[in-house]
Design brief:
alpha+beta; 108 residues
Length: 108
């Protein structure tokens, strides 16, 4: 049986010394999906694009899902993206990604 884990785009505190491999992987996935591209000095290609901000929701969702799968595969290969869904904030209308991952076999 494979276990699935959920990572959402919310404000999490960063642990500089995660207590186990699972916590490290989940934190790395969170960092990938919550970091805007070009915002990390000396590592400008890290993160996800913000160019979808002014596009229709369905277009933005499709592009973002493809990018999340690619970026997680590139920067945290121990995690495999199973699903990306979006929750909408009723107050401001913004979409927030919720990424479901599984851990590559043999990692833990």
């Amino acid at each position: 049986m494979r276990t699935l884990y959920t990572v959402s785009h919310n404000n999490q505190s960063i642990k500089f010394a995660p207590s186990n491999i699972l916590e490290e992987i989940l934190q790395n996935v969170y960092t990938v999906i919550s970091t805007p591209i070009y915002s990390v000095p000396l590592f400008r290609e890290f993160g996800t694009s913000t160019t979808y901000l002014d596009t229709p929701h369905l277009v933005a969702q499709s592009k973002y899902v493809a990018e999340v799968i690619e970026k997680v595969e590139q920067y945290e290969p121990r995690a495999i993206v199973e699903e990306v869904i979006f929750k909408q904030n009723e107050e401001d209308g913004q979409l927030y990604p919720v990424v479901t991952i599984r851990i590559e076999e043999g990692v833990m």
